[in-house]
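Data availability excerpt. The first of two example chains:
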Amino acid sequence: MQRVILHSDMNNFYASVECLYDPSLRSRPVVVSGDAELRHGIVLAKNYLAKRFGIRTGEALWQARQKCPEAVFVPAHYDRYLHYSALAREIYVSYTDQVEPFGLDECWLDVSGSASLFGSGKQIADDLRSRIRRELGLTVSVGVSFNKVFAKLGSDLKKPDATTVIDRTDYQKKVWELPVGDLLYVGPATAKKLARYGIHTIGQLARTPLELLQVAFGKVGVMLWRFANGQDQSSVSPYYSVPPIKTIGNSTTAPRDLVTDDDVKITLYALGESVAARLRSQRSVCATVQLGVRDNALFFYERQSKLARPTNSCTDIVQEALRLYGRNRPERPVRSLSLRACDLELEDEAPQLSLFPEDSRSQHHMELERTIDRIRTKYGYNSIRRGIMLIDPALDLDAQRDHIIHPIGFLGTL
């Protein structure tokens, strides 16, 4: 049976959802922005009217205002985006149970076995677009192809609210003249390196000797060559499957530069509370702690270290992060920090702790924090807090959600 893969991409997702809540925005350039006062002042998303002025995702808000003074800047409402993302996926799973999310606003669907019920891939894509427009008030662009890579490429070719089919008979005509940067996983750095070899289009990549790409790029070169030649065989994961989680982390840009050790300590404990609570909720422990530091000149580095014993204790994780920070202290004040728990394993599979004092202390920390979880579940997060958070409450990424905490490793585009 020939595979039929769809890739659905919700058009200008964040901005489109904001227009649902305020229809007066539909005729105006809309920019969904971070909080400038908390130094998250960048463009998170924009609608097509804003795009016409050259506004780009990730640029500073002052740059966007210079390009389009009449643009409307609205704050992000992540609860709304999660809600509509879930509603769209409910529609997807009515066609197939093989639905693989790629960020909040994109999904692959394998509809190979659905033709007898719903028609061809194009018919399913058109019906899906119609339902989302009618039931949710949003639009999607859908690519239809025989593999995931070309299906995603198809969803990018025509926007908004369009279906693009790339099949085995015409993919070279439709795909090979496109810039190599349009191919999945070819970022700016890879595209620049490919250009040094005279590779500027997907077709040039496809016709490049595989041996050359393997020498120059290793396994990535082989993967990209296969993508360009339509040889992607990766499957679409079942929607209800739970992928193994390899890391859990959070990062934040502080509302002011972190100058003292106490500033860094407060912020790391705030991040650590979130990371450790998520570990415990999944009955996992980590064996490695990774710290990321960005100074106020935007220089970024990461350091990691193995723990003496696996843990899901905030205290143990943050103490290790502080040791990493002390050994790799930046010369300038810190603008943002990230904290990641790596090398996860199930808590029940963790090695038995010994009777040594340090092992006993770690076990005590884990039991104590599980008790704190129960108290917060019953009486609310603010019912019990760490005293260090009272030193400078502005740095506490608290339960009031005054500060946005960004999960590390989030995929997808806006």
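And the second chain:
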Amino acid sequence: MATNKRSHDALLRTLALPSEAYAALEKPTAQGAATRTMYADTSTLSDDSDGNENESHFVQAPLPLKSYNHLQLRAHLKTHYWLGHGRKILTAVISDPANMSKRHLFHVGPGPADDRSHYSFFQVYDVGPDGATERVDITDNQSMSENQNISQALKIWHTIRNIGQSASKKIVGRITIAREPAPILFGALHLTLHEYFDMDELFHHLVETEYSTAHMYRAFSTDEKHQKTFFFKFEYYTITGEDCKPMDWQLADTGDGPMPLSRCSAVVALMLNDDAPQRIKNMERRARSEYGWIQDLWSSWQVLQIECFPDWRATTDVFEDDHRYLNGPEAFLHALLAEFRDARKRYEEIYKHVTQLITPPLRFLFDAELRDQRLFDDESFTWTRRYFHAEQILGSVNDSIKSMIDSFEETFVDEVWGGKSKTLWPLREESPRNDVWKRRLRLLGLQFEREMKELRILQKKNNNSRHEIESLKEHLFSGSSINESRKSLELSRNIKLLTIVNIFFL
């Protein structure tokens, strides 16, 4: 503890915070030195428990201790070889040498920050050997929360810079949720987690424009980090929220379209820190490696969730209940399920906006001008453009939904839900702990099955709307064609009359 305090004091001196900020950070809370809030009641079981769990059913292996400071972050930003996608994310930080030489890498003072880091929202949880989650939040210190000189970015940095450190109990797992991180906070995530995850790989999938994909069967990878990590990449669309701004590297509507649509992405990743993985022979005929390594699902773990969605529709209470997590895969599946639910919410919002675009107002039946607007297109082809845009949006959304469903169902087959997969979280033995895990898996499988059903229902609604748009386009085309034909006929009569008059004068 003394070592931790010395490094903490050194960091504060490095950041050159005001004296009142020192006092806020150093002042202990009424409960003691720990500045975290307990959200799970360890004396009771979660709602979905059958009442038979005890401590032996949960992960007991401790998460290795790691701690980082401001100087290490500066050195990491300067010396790490950033690949193309990492450079896109961090261009505002690393492209200008003047930024790297600033005294403060983070915005320190009160008020909005130029890098919009005041909109970044992180949630960090430590998980103990009883499976309960404990929120890591520096603002739990009352003096700190009242101090207006501490910026949002600096608070976030203090929540993520220490991993596995706890004054009260052993830590076996950590959950890190990062929503709309500012570039400097992306760099802080890269530093604190690059020893566990291939952060360059995750950055690549965040930036790359592609369909949703699953990267779960990695036991035979030649990279040790890939053997230990599993992740889902989500990519789809959302309606940009008020005061929100897409990342510079995200595709977004420039203001010409009928709705503020943005391409968005997220990754949900799991790391199993197994020091003695099980070796398995690779039976593929064209295998690159002869053997693979299976991670024990009862080893210490981390779950990372990075969301780049310029809206306010994310669910923020996934890990705020009294649920106790048996192991890392269970926490990962809960995060994944929440991501699917949030995706459905965003898809439904797009469906509502498209419906509003194509549905006439209530006075349509009683207003001849409104009826003519929908029947005869104008010189700018307003309604043709609108119908085309709406149909293409729904088609792209359905393609995105299909990629999400396919990625999930091709990954989580029956063998995985039964614990019988040979490479994805296999159960090495029959035991009471594994029996509890299989029961939890079955419950989670039913929830995912329901979510896939809801997504398919939304696909059907989108297809029905596309058929309706096709019908509206046909009526518009017919009405406009008839109108143009009449104008052509009138023009031809005028030309005929003019010809007769010319002949008469000749």
